[in-house]
Structures are given as C-alpha cells and as structure tokens.
Design goal:
Helix content is 59%, strand content 16%. By secondary structure, the chain is an alpha+beta fold. The protein folds into two domains: 3-126, Ribosomal protein L10, N-terminal RNA-binding domain (Alpha-Beta Plaits), CATH 3.30.70; 134-171. The protein has a five-stranded antiparallel β-sheet. Helix 2 (33-46) runs antiparallel to helix 4 and helix 4 packs across helix 5 (117-124). This is Large ribosomal subunit protein uL10. Keywords: Ribonucleoprotein, Ribosomal protein, RNA-binding, rRNA-binding. It comes from Nitrospirillum iridis. It holds the Pfam family Ribosomal_L10.
C-alpha cells in the first residue's frame, strides 16, 4: 500500500467513524475468507459495517472523532464493526462471537464512552431502533383503539335498546 492509498483509507475510515454512534473492536485471528464474508453479510443485513484494519491506520483515523479513546484497543489482528444504530453492530458481533471461537470482542465505544466486552454484550441485549419504534407505535395505537371502542360502545348500546323496544313492540 503506497502513501496515497493509505491516506485514502484513513480519510474513508475517519469519515465512516465520524458518522457512526457505535464502534466494536474485535480480534479475528485465524478466520477464513468465507467466515469473514459471512460476517460482513450479516453486518450489512443489520445496517452495520465490518472492516479489517491496520492498527496504525485505524489509530490515525480515530483522531478527531468521538472514538479517540479506543486507541489502546488496537493491538494484534483487529477489525472494527460500526453502525449508526447504537446496537446493530453489537448484536451481530456478539451473536457471531458465540458461534465462532476465532472471533472475539475486545471492546468498543458508544459516543465518547469506552466499553469493554461486557459492555458491548449488555448493549447487544437492548432492542434496536426499529424494535423501539414498533413498540412505541403499538403503545400509541393501543389507547386510540380503546378510545374508539369506548366511543362506539354507547352508540351500540342505544341501537340494542332501540332494537329491543322494536322487537317488544312487534311482539305486542
């Protein structure tokens, strides 16, 4: 990799890290190309990205972002997973780490907060933004359907009373 390629890589990584809210630093020594490709597909499907990085270039790219404190985590064979959704990358990384012994979570960061592997695991157990939106929408819609039911009930009761009087009148 020559100097211009390194600068382009650093600039692209810096831009990506500036636009994300979560970074998960991983160690994936001994993984095959097929395993890494599978992990990338899963990350992409969840709205996250996975990139194998050179430690020196990643440290330079971290400067000027909210993740500068993660500098110490880049030792050995590392890769990063990042997403704008605060839990997407963590969910996929933790799920994949449970199925593949070659893939380990080192730590990460959410905003300016540095997280260890336990913090990333706790974050992965939270619902995603889409799940939260669905729950919120359900909570908003439930009272509306209850109100509609309550408003329709008196009209229905009046109709039943009138129907009963009509049947009573017919019977007489």
């Amino acid at each position: 990799m020559d100097r211009t390629e390194k600068q382009a890589t650093i600039a692209a990584l810096h831009q990506a890290l500036s636009a994300t809210s979560l970074v998960v630093v991983t160690r994936q020594s001994g993984m095959t190309v097929a395993e890494v490709t599978d992990l990338r597909r899963k990350m992409r499907a969840a709205g996250a990205s996975f990139k194998v990085t050179k430690n020196r270039l990643a440290r330079i790219a971290l400067k000027g972002t909210q993740f500068e404190k993660l500098d110490d985590l880049f030792v050995g064979v590392t890769a990063i997973a990042y997403s704008s959704d605060p839990v997407a990358a963590a969910k996929v990384a933790i799920a994949y780490a449970k199925t593949n012994d070659k893939f380990k979570i080192i730590g990460g960061g959410m905003g300016s907060v540095v997280l260890d592997d336990k913090g990333i695991e706790a974050l992965s157990k939270l619902p995603s933004i889409d799940e939260l939106r669905g729950r919120l929408l359900g909570m908003i819609q439930t009272p509306a359907t209850r109100i509609a039911g309550v408003l329709q009930a008196p009209g229905g009761q009046v109709a039943r009373v009138l129907s009963a009087y009509a049947k009573k009148g017919e019977a007489a």
